[in-house]
Amino acid sequence: MPRRLLSLLMLINLYSGLAVTAQPTDFRWESVAPGVWKAIVGQPDRITPLAVAGITPRIDRLKSLGEPAFPNALAGSSHQLVDGKTYLRFPLQKEEQLFGLGLNFKTVQQRGQIKTLHVDHYNGKDNGRTHAPVPFYVSSLGYGVLINSARYITVYAGTAVRTDSPNLPPEKDRNTQRDWSAQPYSDAVEILIPASGSDVYVFAGRTPMEVVQRYNLYNGGGVLPPKWGLGFTHRTPTLFSDKQILAEVADFEARGYPLSFVGLEPGWQSRSYPNSFVWDSTRFPKPQQFLDTLKQKEIRANLWINPYVSSHSPIFKDILPYTGSHMVWVGRVPDFTFPKAQALYKQLFTQQHLSIGISGYKVDEVDGYDHWLWPDVATFPSGIPAEQMRQIYGLQFQKMTDTWFRERNQRTYGLVRGSNAGASALPYVIYNDYYDHHDFITALCTSSFIGVLWTPEARSSKTSEEWLRRMQSVCFSPMAMLNAWADGTKPWTFADVAQDVKEVMQLRMQLLPYLYTTFAQYHFDGKPPIRAMHLVDGFSAVSQTTEGRLNSTDNPYAMAATKDLNDQFMLGDYMLVAPMFAGQSKRTVWLPAGKWYDFYTGQLVGEAQLIEISPGLSRIPLFVKDGGIIPMLPPRLHTPNKQETLSLTVRHYGTQEASWSLYDDDGETYDYERGVFTWTPLTVKRDRQGKLVGSWSRPRTPNFHYSSINWQFMTP
Ligand code: GAL
After folding, report:
1. Ligand 1, CB within 6 Å, residue ranges
2. Which atom of ligand 1 is found nearest the CA of 272?
3. Does the pLDDT at position 222 exceed 70?
4. Which of 625, 658, 677 marks a domain boundary?
5. Which of 348, 387, 424, 511 would give a disulfide with 451, using CB separation of 3.0 to 4.6 Å?
6. Candidates 433, 434, 479: which one to mutate for ligand 1, based on the most atoms within 8 Å of Cβ?
7. CA atoms within 13 A on the CB side of 526
């Protein structure tokens, strides 16, 4: 190339203002909150997940976590423009493990995997196509990286080897060396963003949990559902009428099965797939009366929708100018980046649903599959490319509806099938049609790294054993849901396990004070309610991979994957849940450091070890940490309302003195965001004789709903 042309090109490069260069360049990290840094690389897109989620960082709470230094482990990270795309490179240390990178269903540990993060219905493979392909990973070394981009990002999570790597794996001869590996050691996470730039964030933490806390707090703190949202929910068959639903509700009551909200599936509408969003007058002649009757029984109602508009909908004509080039089930696809499109929905939904007492939505089909949704060639009137629309559509719908409920000072808690980064504070739980029980539990674990909630719903089962096992798992998840839309299965359908199902549903209701406090920790401290074991203090992720054959010049990933702990998790601070699956009569459980006790008997089961259990069919195995404090309600059929005051039983497990704060507020409004709440320490200490004694001081505010405590010392 002639020298003059070369200098001209260099000059253009210099003055183009782009921070992304053809050469690897260091990031320019700027502190944006305590323990959180941001770098702007190149020219980021206008649409980003965090902007769509409309996050409000909880600076006060982030401050209380401390102000750590920028993570050393990320020294030497770089970015570069390659082929008009953005290439990011972050170093990896030997034995470092990675978590996150979307809602995965097979493995918790992500090192050694390649993903193209793409909003989709989960397809049976952890390849990045999932309901919440959150571009965020957490390292066992205590930092997290978020790519705030709504593109189909490809992540090589420690798979490739560069010629200039400082940690080159030795070349081996497959003919003669038995330890030859198809996946030689890789020392970097490499990321390709098909765009000329992106915002990138780094979150620090002494532990992976602290990283997750910062991520959630930066996104506004985790959602605190209304109390009724934590009860039991039953979704009724799709063509049920108001009378049939009321009969079903009465049946739950008569048989003694708890219920807090019902779900109405597509048949509540006059047209669906595409949707009118108005009530079907034959099945629901008087919706207001129907909802009032439910409310008198302390039952809320949730409406199924997908966003695609039928020509029979009252908003059809007005929304047309704000819809995309392609249809979904011959329904129009609104471009919600237009305030006018949002306003049309708000008006209709308020008039038809919110103003008469609907408590929330199930937002279906905002994820995929490809052959149903708009293709990537679709165009939208705002000019936002189809790819980005796909990545943010579910997130934007969550944000829009969340705003409507907030304006009414009424908490909601619904379901959604598509989400992305920044969703921590949004009142939605992800679900799908995939229906593999074991993989549903893995999704509970993986959801805990990326600021989303997941429900392993039960629909139907081949055997009563499977039904019971699924219902047990459901009761230990963020939304305890029976989705009978197609099969009409009832909790009592399998007569031989009907009593066991009832008991686990009752246990769910009894645990409400523990669950509610656990969600308050999500909101105020950023600690997810369901926690993968790798987020637990005293659980050593490292010992899992160093034990046995781990030579980091060999394949370090095989070990991590085979030892992957994806079938047990913590619910809150104290409860370890180890679900059983149909056909299983025994299983192993990893117990973190400290002593662990059986939830039902209070007996010691082990300490920092792998145990094998054969618990029988009737109960889900639950273990409690030494010093565990579990507040419980008397069994009840509905979640308590804000006028009720109840007596508590507080269980203590093990031999340690302990103190744990119980959270309470009105359970329905957003007043807690304005300071109307209480944290009440529950304390267990030994008296002079060495006997454990519980104490507390009852707050005298109308928003505290417990009048007395019966202390129960479970471990003799
Ligand atoms: C599916 C959804 C189900 C059910 C059904 C109704 O897409 O995942 O839970 O709502 O639609 O048609």
Report:
1. 238, 265-266, 304, 364-365, 433, 483, 485
2. 12
3. yes
4. 625
5. 424
6. 433
7. 28
**Domain end point (choices 197, 218, 239):** 218
Tens digits of residue pLDDT in 151-163: 999 999 999 999 9
| E strand or H helix at 470 | helix 464-474
Centre of ligand 1 to C-alpha 364, Å, is 7
Question: HEC states along 185-228?
Answer: CCCEEEEEECCCEEEEEEEECCCHHHHHHHHHHHCCCCCCCCHH
Residues 563 and 682 in one domain: no
Q: What integer best gives the mean pLDDT of the chain? A: 94
Ligand 1 atom closest to 238 (CA)? 6
362 Cα nearest atom in ligand 1? 10
CA-to-CA distance for 98 and 208, rounded, in angstroms?
10
Range in 96-110, 253-267, 560-574, 691-705 the model is least confident about: 560-574
Examine the pLDDT at 554 and tell me if it is beyond 60. no
The fraction of the chain above a pLDDT of 90, given in percent, is: 89
| Whether residues 610 and 554 fall in one domain | yes
Q: 691 and 575 share a domain?
A: no
432 Cα nearest atom in ligand 1: 8
pLDDT band at 350 (very low <50, low <70, confident <90, very high): very high
Note whether 610 and 634 are same-domain residues: no
